[in-house]
Design goal:
The complex is a heterodimer.
Chain A lengths: L2 H18 L1 H30 L6 H4 L4 E4 L5 E2 L2 H9 L4 E12 L14 E7 L1 H4 L15 H8 L5 E3 L10 E6 L2 E10 L13 E5 H7 L5 E2 L1 E6 L5 H16 L13 E3 L2 H53 L4 H45 L12 H27 L23 H14 L5 E2 L5 E2 L1 H18 L3 H7 L1 H6 L1 H11 L3 H38 L4 E5 L13 H8 L4 E14 L2 E8 L12 E3 L15 E5 H7 L6 E6 L2 E11 L8 E5 H8 L6 E6 L5 H11 L3 E5 H44 L1 H9 L4 H43 L9 H27 L8
Parallel strand pairs in A: 4-8, 5-7, 16-21, 18-20
Antiparallel strand pairs in A: 1-10, 1-11, 2-9, 3-4, 3-10, 5-8, 6-7, 12-13, 14-22, 14-23, 15-16, 15-22, 17-20, 18-21, 19-20
Chain B lengths: L11 H7 L41 E12 L5 E12 L6 E11 L5 E9 L4 E3 L5 E4 L2 E5 L12 E7 L3 E9 L4 E3 L5 E2 L7 E18 L2 E16 L7 E11 L4 E9 L9 E5 L5 E4 L2 E9 L6 E11 L6 E8 L5 E2 L8 E9 L5 E9 L9
Antiparallel strand pairs in B: 1-2, 1-13, 2-3, 3-4, 5-6, 6-7, 7-8, 8-9, 9-12, 10-12, 11-12, 12-13, 14-15, 14-23, 15-16, 16-17, 18-19, 19-20, 20-22, 21-22, 22-23
Classes of the chains: A alpha+beta, B mainly beta.
């Protein structure tokens, strides 16, 4: 088809209709926009939350070539001269780095909240790092004799990001381990104009000073290498890597030892961080597609309706010699234009939504994975294209069938006053097909998850099962309409409006099928998520009640994130335990380690002491009490359920743990439930861990008070003495754990609400379409003396019936989805076994609300439809 | 005497510690400076290899190597500089180590240079028992004695300019060590503490591998090495200096410096010393004449890059004129407007008839900026 004809037709055919029914067109665009926006918002929020975890050193050094990291978390400083000696005269900068997290001190008024801002303090040799400086880089220290020495000699101090505050403060108080440090601000982190901007939560300190204030004297967390520029750079980089890898090989070539460190490009750190949250991000992305999926049904619906209504005009065009192909293309262009408008609006809405969502996503990542901060969610060009493509793609998919229908309109139809509405695609009318989808879903639900790099698992088949069920049950749902209509026959005898409505429902049109399917999709997923969250919450409450038995829980106030490593010194831990008001105390030490290159947690508790032994919720209890016997437990370990899923191990298997003392084999003796940590954890006797790591500080202290002691009073007293500690009473900690838990699901709730809203909008659009299709009938009814009220009531019954039928199927679907989410998707992604809970009240409320809203929407549309002129113009 | 140039980072801190001035008049020598650093004492008996090593009780110290290298066919010539500085913080808690490496390719005129500054520790330091200084991957050390090379005979230099230039040289003195100054002490000014120990290997046979860009070249040549130890401060009235170390083809050397005063004149303490073939130093008169100036595009500084030195040859008693012609005009280090820059360049040495009679390194400081801020 030539372009002028297409333009002519678009102007005189498509645009005319849009102008005549601007509200419907706008609604259509809005539905598309909502679908696109939710996807865009979640994508942006995910990226913003993860991107705030960047390789902070990039800000200082540009790009390092290699980074070495120890599987036990840190290196002794003695490794540095060894590295230099091994590299010999090769022109390479060796940059040791210490990374410490610290949080702002709790405010005196509110000391109970977790999730205060966590800062990353990066310790690098600020003199040495300047050797990498390019002419455009600015320096940390001022030039000039006195100014240099004064700044250099000031002791521990920090350089902060320009984004920290509009006016940089002169000093900053931070809790590091158990101490509140007031650190002078030496200045802003000097970054060249072309370097990545320092994140607001990044602080830089001189290596030695940071080692000193974080208790890491003599230790470094990683070493970065920058190979100096010049010819054969690639070859020299490879040589450096080879040297580092050779040096990493264990001295004793015995089979028991593993490499001393891993050598990786700096991007690997970021990738590892992304891998950690990949399952979480994917889950959110999938959820974000509910709205778009629901929207797809509706767009299809609306376009199909338009085809039916404009059929006479199409027939005229066809009689005038416009080809079938041209008609189809015209419709596809119309769909694409709608998609483009929807996509564009969706981008705007999505960007706005992301600003809200990023906080929620960042909080979850902070609680479950690692310290991150709220970065602003920025729209990239790629996302703009993706959003528009998604809008156009969805509109084209939904418009494909209507376009074909339109093109097939025979020229003769111009004479037909009323065309039979399309019954919808054959797919939608086949009960067997619907049931087939359900059956395929059941098969998919049996398949294992896809393993992601870095230990993540993604339940691809689980999601496939969910989509098969949503689609299958959506198809099946419409088959409930005729029986429902028969059930209501009694009522129909008495009310003529009901009778009219039931007449339509006995032979449901494609419209009804699609509206029902869209609602089923939204209700099923919403209710399914509700079941998951309720089950999770019930399980969590039970676990918290069991796991948290002590009266006071103490940690460093600097530990505000799952990856924080702030500790309590052995002296303080002992002082706390020896307090006269304390009956007994338990301590826990946690080290971040890498097993087979996957990060996990190695914890130690005093398992030998029955009085303070943690009461573990067993998934598989140990066979005997060897685990708790000091004579036999040195090489036994308990692992969390997530750990078994992540590392594919079970009771009786041997783990090879990297420790500063070398690789140590331990045998898994039991599996316990742990909903606080998605990475999985290993629990052993603290004695052994202390020995391996040669460290006596602890991560947490739990106190059981003497009878008659008020834990609140003791807490207040201890806080006075140790302002750098975070102390929770039992009740406060339980409440806080559940608050953090609920917060992690806040974004899911938002996504569900949008899904249901889209479906309800769709129902309105459906009924409008149905009434427009039946304009002749409406004219007849009015001629027969039907009042507006009666017509509205008939439409209300229709709306009620469609939503009721969707609610019934949707709730049935939700039970299936709930099971799938709990036992397949959640289990595969996070490795957590949850006990199933059905929040009957919430589900009934949802069902009732949707049904009633369906009726109300029907009524409103009916009132509007009753006034429709007999004229065929929309 | 040599300068210490500075890192942009450290500013003039190190530099001002190193700049020594002298008025030529001896005074009573105190044992320490006001800050408590040792002051060089006359009549010191140097013990080697101990005195090739570091002397942390003094505030400032440097090991300064410059040299001229040729390929086997004499087809290519290069000049190189490898300098290691040590400077203590005023409270003596920190030792700063600064190092400069530079290379001039005589054929292409391309000049390479790089600086490193580190505090003493795992990546920089200087041994006290022998010569063993390092800064990152750069190092200069006295090789331990072997059967065919007795102790103290050879130095090893490892240096680089980024990944573009690499030095892997062995340096063997062909003459005994010269101690400049009177009674083992080089008096530097009117201030009683203004003095240094100034030890020099005026000629070291140099051989090894030079990497330039994609090329790996076997080179031989001759180098000059100063080792100077002091605790003095910069004189108020001095703005910079011109220094040269000259190798004559007849086996003799000249060491020359000219202290420039704020009013543009030369400090009376400026001097020129001839070192004869046996290694005996003898002071002589000199005249300094600028033949050509070069303006640095990077800093705007105007350097006298082509000069004529006229002096009385102590051997013949005749006046001789030596013209220093740089291998390339741009041999400026630093080259940043906000830092301190200086010119340290390899030169050909021509006699009055224009015949090439030796090689030199010329050092020009204080032209980019007043050295005292």
């Amino acid at each position: 088809m030539n372009v002028p004809l297409l333009t002519f037709l678009l102007r005189h055919f498509t645009l005319r209709h849009w102008r005549l029914a601007p509200k419907q067109s706008a609604l259509l665009v809005l539905i598309l926009a909502l679908g696109v926006s939710v996807f865009v918002a979640v994508r942006l929020a995910n990226r913003a939350a993860v991107s705030s975890f960047s390789n902070f050193t990039d800000t200082l050094t540009g790009q390092s070539d290699w980074v070495i990291e120890s599987p036990t978390g840190s290196f002794p400083e003695g490794v540095l001269p060894e590295l230099r000696a091994a590299l010999g005269p090769r022109p390479v900068h060796i940059i040791p780095v210490v990374e410490v997290t610290g949080a702002t001190p709790p405010s005196p008024t509110d000391t109970t909240k977790l999730g205060r801002t966590t800062y990353t303090l990066l310790g690098v040799d600020l003199l040495g790092v300047a050797n990498l400086a390019r002419p455009q880089d600015r320096a940390f220290f001022p030039t000039g004799n006195n100014a240099f020495w004064e700044t250099f000699n000031r002791g521990p101090q920090v350089w902060i990001s320009a984004d920290y505050a509009p006016t940089p403060p002169t000093e900053i108080a931070l809790v590091i381990d158990e101490t509140i440090r007031v650190l002078p601000v030496a200045g802003l982190i000097p970054t060249a104009p072309d370097a990545p901007r320092a994140p607001a939560t990044l602080m830089i300190a001189d290596l030695a000073a940071l080692q000193q204030i974080s208790g890491k004297t003599g230790r470094i967390d990683r070493v970065e290498f920058v190979v100096e520029g010049g010819p054969r750079l690639e070859q020299r980089r490879a040589e450096v890597r080879a040297v580092l890898e050779t040096l990493a090989r264990p001295v004793a070539a015995s089979a028991g030892e593993s490499a001393r460190w891993t050598v990786a490009p700096p991007g690997a750190r970021r990738e590892a961080a992304e891998a950690m949250t990949r399952a979480f991000s994917l889950n959110l992305t999938i959820l974000s597609l509910i709205a778009l999926l629901t929207g797809l049904y509706l767009i299809f619906q609306a376009l199909d309706g338009a085809v039916v209504r404009r059929r006479p005009e199409i027939a005229i065009l066809r009689s005038l010699g416009v080809e079938e192909r041209a008609i189809r293309r015209l419709w596809l262009v119309e769909s694409a234009l709608l998609g483009l408008a929807g996509g564009a609006l969706g981008l705007v809405l999505g960007w706005a939504g992301a600003q809200l969502a990023v906080r929620a996503v960042a909080q979850t990542i902070n609680a479950l994975y690692y310290a991150t901060t709220v970065a602003s969610a920025q729209l990239t060009l790629a996302e703009v294209f993706l959003g528009l493509a998604l809008g156009v793609g969805a509109a084209l998919v939904a418009g494909f069938w209507p376009a074909r229908e339109a093109a097939r309109t025979p020229p003769a139809q111009v004479l037909q006053r009323s065309a039979r509405p399309a019954a919808g695609p054959r797919l939608g009318r086949n009960l067997a097909l619907g049931l087939g989808f359900v059956a395929a879903g059941i098969l998919c639900a049996q398949l294992p998850p896809v393993a992601l790099a870095g230990g993540g698992r993604f339940p691809l088949a689980g999601y496939a099962a969910a989509f098969l069920w949503i689609f299958g049950i959506g198809v099946v749902a419409a088959f409930l309409l005729p029986p429902l209509a028969r059930l209501g026959r009694g009522l129909g005898e008495r009310f003529v409006s009901v009778k009219i409505a039931l007449g339509h429902l006995r032979q449901p049109s494609g419209r009804h099928r699609l509206a029902a399917a869209a609602l089923v999709c939204a209700i099923g997923m919403t209710a399914g998520m509700t079941i998951l969250v309720a089950s999770f919450e019930q399980t969590m409450q039970g676990w918290v009640k069991r796991a948290l038995q002590a009266d006071l829980y103490i940690s460093s106030a600097g530990a505000q994130s799952a990856s924080a490593q702030n500790r309590i010194s052995a002296t303080t831990a002992k002082a706390l335990a020896d307090h006269p008001a304390v009956a007994r105390s338990a301590v826990l030490i946690a080290h971040f380690i890498e097993v087979d290159g996957i990060p996990t947690l190695l914890s130690g508790a005093d398992l030998e002491n029955p009085a303070v032994r943690p009461d573990l919720p067993w998934i598989t209890a140990p066979r005997d009490d060897a685990m708790f016997d000091p004579a036999r437990n040195a090489h036994l370990a308990l692992v969390s359920e997530s750990f078994t899923a992540r590392f594919q191990v079970g009771v009786g298997d041997t783990l090879r743990l990297p420790t500063p003392a070398g690789v140590r084999p331990v045998v898994v003796a039991g599996v316990f439930a742990d909903y606080g940590n998605e990475r999985g954890s290993i629990l052993m006797t603290r004695r052994q861990i202390q020995r391996w790591f040669a460290e006596d500080s602890v991560s947490n202290v739990a106190l059981y008070v003497q009878p008659g002691v008020n834990p609140e009073a003791l807490r207040a007293e201890l806080l006075q003495r140790y302002p750098g500690l975070s102390i929770f009473t039992n009740a406060k900690l339980r409440a806080e754990v559940l608050r953090v838990f609920r917060q992690t699901f806040a974004i899911t709730h938002a996504l569900e609400v949008i899904g249901v809203a889209v479906a309800m909008t769709g129902l309105a659009l459906t009924l409008i379409s149905v009434l427009l299709d039946r304009r002749d009938e409406l004219t007849t009814l009015r001629a027969l003396g039907f009042r507006r009220q009666q017509i509205a009531r008939a439409a209300a019954v229709e709306g009620l019936a469609v939503s009721a039928c969707a609610v019934l199927s949707g709730l049935a679907l939700s039970v299936a989805l709930g099971w799938l989410l709990i036992h397949v998707i959640n289990k595969q992604s996070f490795g957590w076994t949850l006990s199933t809970a059905f929040p009957v009240g919430a589900l009934l409320l949802l069902g009732a609300a949707v049904t009633v809203t369906g009726g109300l929407v029907g009524y409103a549309v009916g009132r509007w439809g009753a006034d429709l002129p007999a004229d065929r113009e929309e | 005497m040599k300068s210490l140039q500075t890192s942009r980072l450290l500013g003039c801190f190190v530099l001002s510690c190193l700049f020594v001035s002298f008025r030529g008049q001896a005074a009573e020598m105190p044992l320490t400076t006001a800050e408590g650093f040792a002051v060089p004492q006359p009549g010191r008996v140097f013990v080697f290899p101990r005195d090739h090593g570091s002397h942390p009780e003094f505030k400032i110290e440097w090991w300064y190597v410059t040299g001229h290298l040729f390929t086997a066919d004499r087809g290519r010539r290069f000049g190189y500089q490898a300098t290691f500085f040590r400077s203590a913080s005023p409270d003596k808690t920190v030792q700063f180590h600064l190092a400069h490496m530079a290379l001039i390719d005589g054929k292409s005129g391309q000049f390479y240079h790089q600086e490193r500054l580190n505090r003493e520790g795992w990546d920089a330091g200087a041994a006290t028992a022998t010569l063993d200084v390092k800064n990152g991957p750069w190092s200069l050390r006295l090789l331990p004695s072997t059967a065919d090379a007795p102790a103290g005979e050879r130095l090893e230099l490892r240096g680089a300019v980024r990944g573009e230039v690499g030095f892997a040289f062995t340096l063997a003195p062909t003459k005994p060590l010269v101690v400049f100054g009177e009674n083992g002490i080089s008096r530097k000014g009117a201030a009683p503490t203004a003095a240094s120990y100034y030890l020099t290997f005026p000629r070291l046979r140099t051989e090894g591998v030079l990497t330039v860009g994609e090329e790996t070249l076997a080179v031989t040549g001759e180098s000059w090495m100063d080792h100077e130890i002091s605790s003095s401060q910069l004189d108020e009235n001095q703005v910079g200096w011109d220094w040269a170390g000259i190798h004559l083809n007849d086996g003799r050397e000249l060491m020359f410096y000219r202290m420039r005063l704020r009013d543009g004149s030369a400090d009376p303490a400026s001097t020129l010393t001839w070192v004869d073939a046996a290694g005996v130093p003898r002071k002589s008169d000199f005249q300094w004449e600028v033949l050509e100036r070069w303006t640095s595009p990077a800093t705007g500084a105007v350097y006298p890059v082509r000069v004529r030195l006229t002096s009385t040859d102590p051997a013949s008693g005749k006046r001789v004129a030596l013209t220093l012609v740089p291998l390339a005009k741009d041999q400026e280090l630093g080259g940043k407007r906000d830092g301190i820059s200086y010119w340290e360049g390899a030169c050909r040495v021509l006699d009055a008839d224009g015949r090439e009679i030796g090689s030199a390194y010329l050092e020009l400081t204080g032209y980019a900026k007043d050295l005292k801020i």
